[in-house]
Amino acid sequence: MRIFQVTLMTLALLAGLPVAQAQNAFGGGEAHIAAQLVAESDAPRAGEGTMIAFAMAPQAGWHGYWENPGDAGLGMTVDWTLPKGVSVGPLRYPVPETLLISGLMNHVYEGPYAVLASLKVAGDIAPGTRLPVRAKAQWLACTDKVCVPESGELAIDLVAGDGMVAAATRARFDGWRTHLPRPLGSEASYEVKDGRLRLSVPFPASAQASDIHLFPLAEGLVTYAAPQTVTREGDRLLIETAAAEGGKRGAVQAVLRTGDHVGFLLTAKPGEVAAASGGGAPWRAILAALGGALLGGLLLNIMPCVFPILGLKAMKLAKAGGDERIVRREALAYTLGVIATCLLLGSALLGLRAAGSAVGWAFQLQDPRIILALLLLVTAIAFNLAGLFELRAYGGGEGLAGKGGVAGSFWTGALVAFVATPCTGPFMAAAMGAALLLPLAAALAVFAGLGLGLALPFLLLAYIPALRRRLPKPGGWMGRFQKILALPMFLTALGLAWLLGQQRGVPGMTIGLGAALLLALLLWWLGGRQRIGKGGGVIVAIAALAVLAGAAYALPTSAPAASADSATSVHFDVAKLAELRAANKPVFLYFTADWCLTCKANEAAAIDRAETRAAFDKAGVTVMVGDWTNADPAITRFLESQGRSGVPLYLFYAPGKEAQTLPQLLTPATLTGLLR
């Protein structure tokens, strides 16, 4: 394969075939990788410049190559023709992918990608000066069977101006920038011994890293196709692989991939590197994450959206009496529903992140359509508990003895797990953050542990008769208690309506409340028919789905415009944070979401207290707030940089010092004590 590729490229390039816009090496025809030269600003400012990019779009089944193509291939080469006073920096490639073909490792791009470069304009260029930029580029397009050299004479005409950038263009280039490797900052070290390379990379234990692979920038360091073993030990990554035979030594540079098209540019120098200490540390991390998930799931049972349903389950156990078979069957069905839903949500989260989406735990509550559906569902449950109509999956004990009772328990568990996910309490953040760093099987085990913790109280009641005997005897109190349980469900529905308003403004909240009112009227009609012995459940179900579909369609498509900074806080912005730190001003930065109960409790109990505000004002502390209610990739990336997958997160930047991570449960004394 390598001989074939090199021979084909050499013959084609020596032939000196004429080139046109993105053509193949045989003097015509459509290019298999289309290329376009674009600029971030069509009017770069003199003395500054702009970013330019080769936007590459491979056809299905074709791929292009990184600057170090691996065992086979060829990176892009460019000959520039530039006007006086204009210069272009080196090409900057995005983090590549690996492709193993016939035992040869290729460093490639199998989808659209962009190679960037910085264009500089001299300070003495007068505004209005035309700046024609011409580039003769050559690249290699390959499938798993054939390679074709391609080339193009690409052009773009700029005019010296004010450096303005269109919003759409800025977003396009920002997307490309996120795929460029970021300088690691800390120096790595490597050692070659007995034909093996061992590389130690300083990397915080709390930082996210997955699908790790080392891409050397130059040949002579590693055998590209050899497997790479990665071990996380505290604040370092240890990578071991086969060293290249007779390779050069000294300072080397490489790109370390730590996610899908995400990575770091590192410099490594020769030095002694200790071997991995064994598998104990990963197992300890897995066990710690699993324990945190179990405890976090257990605490979720006291949340207002979970406790009423758990109370209903306890009443059903009281009605079931001493029939152990029925009780345990119900408990297992409920547990299965909880764990299955946690696994599905966890798998969806991992899948979305693997696909490049910047999402975190409870991501489903960032979609207003999900909020709307939950609002209608919780409204129906609340009216059922209040006695407006009958729903066997939640009310009545007679369904417990049959097949319907098992199905009802399963779907009850599924509902509980789905609505409980935003309640990431004090043990949950570290566990969820660790789950995103662990291997797939271990990560899914953590999500299953969360479900087990959530279902644990019901399991204990079912399998320990002594606990169940302590439950009150069945009687008239059960009907009254069921109606009392409707109150927190109505409060939950009210909270969901408020959350919908936060995400889609007053129009969104109005649509949600209107849909809930229509549903209530449907359920009132159903309850009246049930009291005279008639049906109508199917009609109501179809009508409810129609109400949901219509309301979801009518929801505004965008979030309300963010309000200006208040008198007490400013919105999260990375540049603003850097500006405040450069000015040596203290900053209290916290990330919250309207669906995070722990966040709201901390705000009410500690952050929004008069004594806290007074202390912060006296010390000149800037309070910066990152609101994650709606999906925000900038906030997600920042959270990941701190080793977190969700909120809350509280950081304090003292003047001239690095961030101090605060506990997830705050008190006024915790915050005021930072200023001493």
Question: What can you see in these coordinates?
Answer:
41% of the residues lie in helices and 22% in strands. The protein has 676 residues and is an alpha+beta fold. It has four domains: 2-179, Immunoglobulin-like, CATH 2.60.40.1250; 188-270, Immunoglobulin-like, CATH 2.60.40; 282-554, no CATH class; 570-675, 3-Layer(aba) Sandwich (Glutaredoxin), CATH 3.40.30. Strands 12, 13, 14, 15, 16, 17, 18 and 19 form an eight-stranded mixed beta sheet that branches. The protein has a five-stranded mixed beta sheet with strand order 20-22-21-23-24, covered by helices on one side. The longest helix has 55 residues, at 477-531. It is globular, with a radius of gyration of 30 Å. The model is unreliable at 1-21 and 392-404 (pLDDT under 50).
Which labels suit this protein?
5-stranded mixed sheet, alpha+beta, 4 domains, single chain, 17 helices, Immunoglobulin-like, 676 residues, disordered N terminus
Describe the SSE topology.
Elements: H1 2-14, E1 23-24, E2 33-39, E3 50-58, E4 64-70, E5 77-81, E6 86-88, E7 97-101, E8 104-109, E9 113-121, E10 130-142, E11 147-159, H2 167-177, E12 182-183, E13 188-193, E14 196-202, E15 213-216, E16 229-233, E17 236-242, E18 252-259, E19 262-270, H3 280-299, H4 307-320, H5 324-354, H6 368-385, H7 403-420, H8 428-435, H9 440-463, H10 465-469, H11 477-531, H12 537-554, E20 570-571, H13 574-582, E21 587-592, H14 597-607, H15 610-619, E22 622-627, H16 633-641, E23 649-653, E24 659-661, H17 668-672
Parallel strand pairs: 12-19, 13-19, 20-22, 21-22
Antiparallel strand pairs: 1-11, 2-3, 3-9, 4-8, 5-10, 6-9, 7-8, 10-11, 13-14, 14-17, 15-18, 16-17, 18-19, 21-23, 23-24
